[in-house]
Amino acid sequence: MVKPLIIAIDGPAGAGKSTVARMLAERLGLDYMDSGATYRAAALKVLQSGTALDNQNEIGRVIALAEIQFLAGNQEPKVLLDGKDVTAEIRSSEVTYAAARVSRLPEVRKKLISLQRSLVAGRGVVMEGRDIGTVVFPEASLKIFLKADPEERARRRLQQNHQQGRPSTLADTVSEISKRDQLDAERKISPLVAAEDAHVVDSTYLTAEQVVERILELARSKKLLTTP
Q: How far is CA 62 from CA 57, 65, 90, 171, in A?
């Protein structure tokens, strides 16, 4: 059997992972999956339950009962929590912060990593996140670590927030990204690092299209694509 093409794209907030991963998935006819959405959905479940973010035992119990589903495609997949579409709801700043907190818990990561692997189920996929190439799919066909200067990442995230109808300021966005970077770096389980065999791409001065082309060149050099 032919091994399905799995492209892992990791990197910090605002590096352009989501945009690049969606564009790449569309170009290659693969499913696009945002692993972070599973953590956001889990965090929303915790917030809905009223559980304190430092109550590890209760968080584990709440998330164990959560039913998280993806309706995948090569663009923004719908995320269902207990049968309800929460695709837009999980993008709030409150959920973003809660997701960074709950994702540090071992029992949460164990459940959601298992879920992320099951979502692929032998299909070709472009999955983006923070530990895809290191933990979720260490056997991925191609691993990309996307980075960018902090100031540029903040500007991109601010623009994204406005496009999604979530007003913010540059100062607040810089603070949000700094906090997330710190949480990702200090996390004992699956901290944000580039896989040893990942290709590091700096997107600071590149358009999303240029990043996609660079990744396609890498895929061709590894003979992962059957078309030129």
A: 9, 5, 17, 34
Predicted confidence (pLDDT) per residue in 158-201, tens digit? 887 777 777 778 888 888 888 888 878 777 777 889 999 999 99
Domain that holds residue 166: 6-218
Q: Give buried/exposed letters for 173-186 (b at 16+ CB in 10 A, else e).
A: bbebbeebbebbee
d(CA 120, CA 3): 12
Distance of alpha carbon 57 from alpha carbon 187, whole angstroms: 18
Classify residue 227: in a domain, yes or no: no
Residue 191 lies in a domain: yes
The answer to whether residue 225 is domain-embedded is: no
H or E stretch including 68? strand 68-71
Domains identified in the chain, total number: 1
CA distance 118 to 138: 15
Radius of gyration of the chain (CA): 17
Examine residue 104 and state whether it is found in any structural domain, yes or no.
Answer: yes
pTM score over 0.90: no
